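Supplementary Data S3. Sequence and structure tokens for construct A.
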Amino acid sequence: MKVSHVSEADHDIVTAAVAAAEAPTSGEIVTVVAGKSNDYDDVALVWASIIAFLAMSIVALFPEFYRGLYDRLTGGWGHELTANQWLGMVIAFGVLKWIGVWLILLWRPLRMALTPRSIKATRVRARAIDLFKVGTEGKTTGRTGVLLYLSLKEHRADIVADEAIAAKVTPDVWGDAMAALIDHVRAGKPGEGMAEAVRQMGIVLAEHFPRGSENPNELPDRLIEL
């Protein structure tokens, strides 16, 4: 069963906002909301490897302490380890650390929290561009499509514009729309945030691409959930 990320009311709010924003412009706005943009499995792999390496390095730096710990655990009855046996124990210790960290990071909220913000921003941007190429790029007569993408888990959003818009509107122009969207998402109101962002995007589009004599609705107004 498909999990809904936003309410039906949010869908209605965003759809109405898109229709209103497109009325005075030849631009076409597509809105997409996703639960997350990436699973960040590679981030969990890196964290597990770093912690396993650090654990083995600490053992290598303080061998006498850990040899003493081994003796205490065996009650002094353990045989004296050879250099190869000791190396094998250190490696086994590192492997167990790696597996332990990997299992802990199967809990996605922790994995997300440990993912650097720059990586989240890069993955959200890449996902937005992929979606834009599939559903928006070149789909309008004047190449005036623009995608608004929101990724909820990352608390990140992005705007990707088609060729004609990108030639006239620099990315920083969308700053107010993005700020309004993120503020509302943090307040738990993603639908209202997307609607406000769409409203501000419509103002920009109307300035640069006013409505012509013919203004077909070439892209869907509805909010798309992934």
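Construct B, processed identically:
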Amino acid sequence: MGFDYHHFIELIPDINLAFMQTVYMITISLIVAVLIGLPIGILLFVTDKGLFLENRWFKNGLGFVVNLVRSIPFIILLVALLPLTDWIVGSTIGPTAASVSLSVAAIPFFARIVETALREIDKGVIEAAIAAGATPWMIVKDVLLLEAKSGIISGVTLTLVSLIGFSAMAGTVGGGGIGDLAIRFGYYRYDNTIMIATVVILIILVQIIQLAGDFIAKVVDKR
């Protein structure tokens, strides 16, 4: 059975609810990822060899934790974090519960992107700021974040796109959203209409986010 337009019209309320759940999940996760991942990414950079807060042990320890979380497949992380999710939100199902695992997965992902963006800054700019007597906080605020803002915005876009894919996977454990709808209605009931609709919605969402992110990154890039 192919795409049934009339059946699609009947499913619009369910699709709308699932779409809003997905937006809710990825918005919470992105905010958490930026708030925690940004400082982690900065710390990974400034504690590296030759930088103004060089600390090999701290850098290696933090890098190990970041790599450890990143190396765990999301579906396994999703299940492993169920006790933590239950402790934080009081439930293991629904979009709010899924946001916990999404956030944990997104934090190290975004942190590494921030670190990479900072590595592209000309070391001479940092050295000039140090020579001028700037404090570490001033260097971070006025040099690093300013110089790397285009790369960081691109990182936010990439993280957001990845979160959409992860959120679809969260449907396998009752996380809600587009993925949950696709699995419950599309996969289990062999409903091609809902499968096609959810895939198209996700493709459009990713395209809009990518285009908007690329545009903003280009606007703020002063190079």
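Residues 22 and 212 are 18 Å apart (CA to CA). The radius of gyration is 20 Å.
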